[in-house]
From TrEMBL:
Coiled coil: none annotated. The keyword Transmembrane helix applies. Signal peptide: none annotated. It comes from Aminipila luticellarii. Residues 41-422 form the Amino acid permease/ SLC12A domain. The lineage of its organism: Bacteria, Bacillati, Bacillota, Clostridia, Peptostreptococcales. This is APC family permease. Its main location: membrane. It comes from the Bacteria. GO terms for biological process: transmembrane transport.
Length: 448
């Protein structure tokens, strides 16, 4: 493969500047170290106070899919991620639907963080209206992405470091509070992993499905394949590193929070449960810092989510699944898909002002898990059947387990998720049918 992937029409190309560290941080930034803050209250009620166990199960489950992304990135180190892997590994048309579904996921990540960040910022500074905070957050995220991935990588590095420091401070403060007699009164307890009389298979499945929400985003690393210095080697490694690192951060946060506040039924508000924990453990200083970390997460996840969706559109445009001239346009100076980024900015602002946060979270799981299933299936079809690779564990058993786990969790999503999710797929079906003249014309595949 040539050192840089070029735009066939203009000679422009995405810059190869991202190393393993940048890619791993990019994935962690998308997931955000403080992700438990978004779901802790409701998830604790669902899991009977064993969210730490649910996070552990979800991490193991996601590792199978992370490995599959790594396999496909090694074979096809191009922008487009889920879309490209399914298209090249299985079928042109299924690839479109995989991309269409995962696009829903990437679009919704900025919405969630824009909404959450603006809500908390507005609560902290009520003199500034909610919609103004949405515009500020969206504006900063868009400018960073338009300037280029090097700036985005450096920005994410700084913000993730700050968030990580606050999360570590939260963990230490909670530990000191427990040792001082708060909550369980001991740092060694099985309760965050098993609650007698409450924990069962159904509870674990429901909890793991919720916990998967926090992991959605590690796959975004693969959309940066054409900007990675060593994509075949680093993409898969970065996905696994991000998945493990993020998972361990989630598990420890859930563990210490449960020890500080054992009775998960007594939170004043499920939406701000971890802030109540922070307040109890470390007073207003700790709760204030935790609020600040949540606001920072809107920038890291927003930058990564917007960037990933823009590059997914770039890949689909290059294959002429979307109008090529528009979606493959790169800024002459920054070499970024600036028009796609601006589209994502407009969608993010509109969605933040019009949509409900709960619905957005549910729909993310629909698109994300659907895309994960397609990638796991792509490994089996491409490597085991087409390439005749006979490493049964690597190319059949592991991706099959990834597919089965994602499918099982996908089946346990809410009815509303399926109604809206399949409506989205129906729109994609109509678009694909028209653009391929009744599926008689195969979408073009970009050749390296």
């Amino acid at each position: 493969m040539s050192e840089q992937i070029t735009n066939a029409d203009s000679g422009q190309h995405l810059k190869r500047v991202l190393k393993l560290k940048d890619l791993a941080i990019y994935g962690i930034a998308f997931m955000t170290p403080i992700a438990p803050a978004y779901i802790y209250g409701s998830a604790s009620a669902t899991t009977g106070g064993t969210l730490a166990m649910s996070y552990l199960i979800a991490m193991v489950a996601m590792l199978f899919t992370a490995a599959s992304y790594g396999r496909m990135a090694g074979a096809f180190p191009v922008a487009g991620s889920t879309y490209s892997y399914t298209q090249k590994g299985i079928n042109h048309h299924l690839g479109f639907f995989a991309g269409w579904a995962i696009y829903l996921d990437y679009v919704l990540v900025p919405l969630i963080v824009f909404i959450t960040g603006a809500l908390y910022a507005n609560a902290a500074v009520p003199e500034v209206p909610y919609f103004v905070w949405v515009l500020i957050i969206a504006g900063v995220v868009t400018v960073v992405n338009c300037v280029g991935v090097q700036m985005a990588a450096k920005t994410n590095l700084v913000l993730v470091a700050v968030m990580g420091a606050i999360v570590m401070m939260f963990i230490v403060v909670c530990a000191k509070a427990v040792l001082g007699g708060a909550g369980e009164g001991t740092l060694i307890s099985s309760r965050p992993f098993f609650n007698p009389g409450v924990t069962n298979v159904n509870v674990l499945v429901a909890g793991s499905a919720l916990a998967c929400f926090s992991f959605l985003g590690f796959d975004s690393i693969t959309t940066m394949a054409e900007e990675a210095v060593h994509p075949k080697k680093d993409i898969g490694r970065a996905a696994i590193i991000a998945c493990v690192a993020g998972g361990l951060i989630f598990v420890v946060q859930a563990y210490v929070a449960q020890l500080v506040w054992p009775d998960y039924t007594t939170f004043g508000s499920a939406d701000t449960a971890l802030f109540e924990v922070a307040q109890l453990a470390g007073g207003t200083v700790m709760s204030g810092l935790y609020t600040f970390a949540v606001i920072l997460s809107t920038f890291t996840a927003g930058i990564a989510g917007q960037s990933s969706a823009a590059r997914l559109m770039y890949g689909m445009g290059r294959d002429e699944v979307l109008p090529k001239k528009f979606f493959t346009y790169l800024h002459p100076k920054f070499q970024t898909p600036v028009l796609n980024i601006l589209i994502m900015c407009v969608i993010g602002i509109a969605g933040s002002l019009l949509l409900n946060l709960t619905l957005v979270c549910e729909l993310m799981n629909f698109g994300g898990l659907f895309g994960f299933m397609c990638v796991n299936l792509s490994v089996i079809v491409y490597f085991f059947f087409r390439q005749k690779e006979r490493n049964v564990v690597k190319y059949l058993i592991l991706p099959a387990l990834g597919f089965i786990i994602c499918f099982y969790l996908w089946l346990h999503l809410s009815k509303l998720s399926f109604i809206v999710g399949f409506s989205w797929l129906l729109i994609g079906l109509i678009f694909a049918a028209v653009s391929t003249k009744g599926f008689k014309i195969k979408p073009k595949i970009y050749e390296e």
